[in-house]
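From the pipeline queue, job 12 of 40. The input is one protein chain; the requested action is below.

Action: predict structure.
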Amino acid sequence: MKSTGHMEEAGGYRFLVPNVATRHGDFCISYNNYDIDLYGSDTTALVCGEGQGPFYVLNGDHREEYDKRTQLGFQACLDYFKDNMQDIAKYSEKPGHEFHFKKKGGPK
């Protein structure tokens, strides 16, 4: 499988981006197979807001399953995460706490 790591440029600087992400309104799905040595496997993250988190991370590639739910909104994706907690990554946040967004209009 091709690595998700790729170079991007902004403000005259080039930098490595280890993941690919798809935005779905106020949340995104992020897949990373570049940092396997760090995380122990490839990971798929459900990320709230504009990247400020929380980050709900599952081990493995869950993009196809999330894609089936993105049109239903953030809560449908969070429900999928909760239903698959057996795959939770060691660095993942856990649902059940209040979170607040820096930008107005984030998922509730």
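Job complete. The mean pLDDT is 81.
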